[in-house]
Amino acid sequence: MKEKIKSWMLFLLILGSLVESYYLIYRLPGSDSAVLSESQYVKTDIMGPKEKVENLLYPDKMIIHMGEDKHTLFYPSSTFYNLILNRLKGRSFESFQRRSVQDFDWNKIRSENPGIELSFGAGIPVTLLQRVMQISPDSLFEGESIDRIWIYNIKNDSKAHAIFFSTRGDIVYEAAKADLTVQDVQQHVDFGKNLTPYTAVNGEYYVPEAAIPLVEVVMPAGMYTIEQMQSNLFFDAGSTRYIPEKDGSKIYTDSKRSLQVDQEQNWMSYSDPAALPDGDSTPAKDALEAVEFVNNHGGWNGTYRLAATEEGRQDRKVSFQQYYGAYPSGSYPIMSNPQLQYGVIHLELQQGTVSSYERSLMYMDEEKSEKTIVELSGGEALKQRLARIGSSLRVTDLTPAYMPTLTEEKLQLRPVWRVTLSDGSVLTLN
């Protein structure tokens, strides 16, 4: 009898130990902290394919100067944009000479000299640009970031001139040796003949002389789930716990990293303040690290362009801009706005390591899209509207773009003019 009692007591002790072990392994301290067992782990879902950094480096526009103060513009993925860019990628540039931007009469070059101007927005580090163009190594030049490349002919000069603009604003670099002939440049310029003419305004932006057609599209909007993002961002998705917020957002954490989801905006913010920095940071290396991070944590759900590598006091912000459209008509940036955050991926890096990652949880279902052709205004009507805006703050850029809106689970991309002002603010005209 005593042996049976001892056996039952031993069984109960073992059972209690197993129950206690279960709670230690599959529960976290604190209220509302249930976690998933291994059999319930969400498999890593790919939000999009991986991407090479080379495919994210391209100009946001091409400005074709035809002489006699005539100009036209080409945008990414359009027929002549692709043709010119692919040709320039195969040409070499070397023997750079550093010069002051004031050494040139840019207004005269713009109005009189046939040429091609590539705009890179906020700029691209030279060491990244070398991945897509044949730029010879140069110790002085390689530390720069470039926001424009201007290739042009001068009357009675037998060689083409290639100028690279530093983002610092006061310095340019001229390639003393450029694998381009005067005839090459003229052929590229001739692609702009018989296309919509643009007028240069203050040498800063260009206004079309006529309305330009763009595609307006309405399509179903898909949504990535919180479980998918947890699986993509946490080493062990089963170790996270949920913390409700008063503003309606949701926070998931494994006590080191956190994932905050704004359900109204369908926007996620991931933070890893405990990430160990490797101490090696440059604009180019941080951009490469940012691309690799997105590759390994979801992928790219569309076409993107490296938009900025901004340096802060203790970190660097890397942004990628999403584009919509395709060959041969062209593609244009999708604007994020206070009503709907969409179309951008933001990352912050500290000493070469990603500490913050933000993006939309929405994606486009293009297979069921409905498209119509609309026109963006041009000519005098647009010039007058821009002049009124410019009376208070100088207009520095004018670009066709898409404004996203979400209604009844459908995403609408509506063409607008994106107007950038001298203080960096942006507004839209439609």
Automatic annotation (TrEMBL):
Lineage top rank: taxon: Bacteria
Residue stretches making up the Regulatory protein YycH domain: 3-421
Name recorded for this polypeptide: Regulatory protein YycH domain-containing protein
